[in-house]
Amino acid sequence: MAGFTLKEQEKATILKQALEGQITNDHAARKLGLSVRQVQRVKASIRKGGIVSVVHKLKGRPGNHRITEEIKQASLQAIKEHYSDFKPTFATEKLGEHHGIHISYGTTRLWMIQEGLWKPRKQKQRKYFSWRRRKDYFGELQQFDGSYHYWLEDRYLDAEGNQIEMCLLAAIDDATGEITKAEFAEHEGVIPVFRFWKGYVEDKDLGKPTSIYLDRFSTYKINHKAALDNAQLKTQFQRAMGVLGVTVIFANSPQAKGRVERLFGTLQDRLIKEMRLAGIKTPEQANIFLKEVFLPAFNNKFAVIPAKTGDAHRKLQEQEKVQIQHIFSVHEARRVTNDFTIQFKNQYYQLKEIQPTTVRPKEIILMETWLDESVHILFKEQELQYLELPGKPQKQYKQPPILTTHKLNWKPPADHPWRKLRYGKG
Question: 133 lies in a domain?
Answer without folding.
Answer: no
